[in-house]
Amino acid sequence: MEFKTLCCAGLMLMFFFPTVFCCDRCLHKSKVSYYSSSQTVNGACGYESFATALNRGNVATASAKIYREGVGCGGCYQIRCTDPAICSKSGVKVVVSDFTRSNQTDFVLPSSTFSMLAQPTKSSMLVKMGIVDIEYKRMPCEYPGKNMTVKIDKISNYPNFLAVQFLYQGGQTDIMGVEVAPVGTSNWKFMTRNHGAVWSMQQPPEGPMSLRLHVTSGYDGFWVWAKGAVLPSDWKVGSIYDSGVQIKEIAQEGCSPCDSQDWDLSL
Q1: CB–CB of 75/141 below 8 Å?
Q2: What is the mean pLDDT of residues 156-179?
Q3: What local confidence, expressed as pLDDT, does residue 9 receive?
Q4: Which end of the chain is more exposed for a tag (fewer CB within 10 A), N or C?
């Protein structure tokens, strides 16, 4: 995948939100390192072993500015290192699943994913370096043929405490609010972010539940409605339910020099 600058004339969002003029998917420079353990599987986002299914195991531990106290969980980034003698031009696409307090890098990758930054015959050389300079962009997540799904988190306690996380969220947006209501009613109740990608509430509604999400796309926000019963009345810890919807919008990010010129991204 080659990096390209995409400046847009705005995205008309659902309902009444205005069109904006912007530049999306800005390029950033930083560093990346790697680890050899499986710590990301049990990362701060709460995905646990499911992280390996989100992107074939190509997940990332991210710095505070990317993790954003859990808002950044599930975001997709294209990363490439910048040494033309060693690095590939395409790099690797990763999904954020954990948080790092390191002030040296913006990403820490599994060693196998880190190796994918290199040209086919240069991976051992890259691994020996340990930490390398990178360019990265946030990119849309793509899960062909999959709707966004809702997993009942392990901290739930039926029927008095409900905690959920959203998996296979497509597009390039952030979930900023979650509400549930009994099917067929408008009695919406807020959930709160518990930690990472996990949202929770005390005393959830009885019976089958509808669900809606408030999603931000850079400057603007909109509601995503999962119509009908998403969660059954007898929801169970660990169960995964199809939301029936998928987010495909692209986040808008104003940045310079993207607003005025193209980048020369050749390696």
Answers
A1: yes
A2: 96
A3: 28
A4: N
Count up the domains in the chain and report the number. Answer: 2
Computed from CA positions of residues 245, 190, 172, 109, in that sequence, does the dihedral angle turn out positive or negative? negative
Give one DSSP letter per residue of 164-215, joined into a string: EEEES--BB-EEEEEEEEETT----EEEEEEETTEEEEESPPSSSEEEEEEE
Kindly report the number of other CB atoms within 10 A of residue 179's CB atom.
18
CA dist 75 and 140 (Å) reads 8
Backbone angles phi, psi at 112, to 5 degrees: -65, -35
Structural domain harbouring 131? 18-139
Count of beta carbons in the 10 Å neighbourhood of residue 24: 23
Cα-based distances in Å from 26 to 6, 62, 197: 9, 17, 24
Global pTM value: 0.85
DSSP structure class, residue 17? P
195-205 tens-digit pLDDT: 999 999 999 99
| Domain end residue (candidates: 94, 119, 139) | 139
Same domain, 120 and 229: no
> Under a CB-based contact definition with an 8 Å cutoff, are residues 155 and 166 in contact?
no
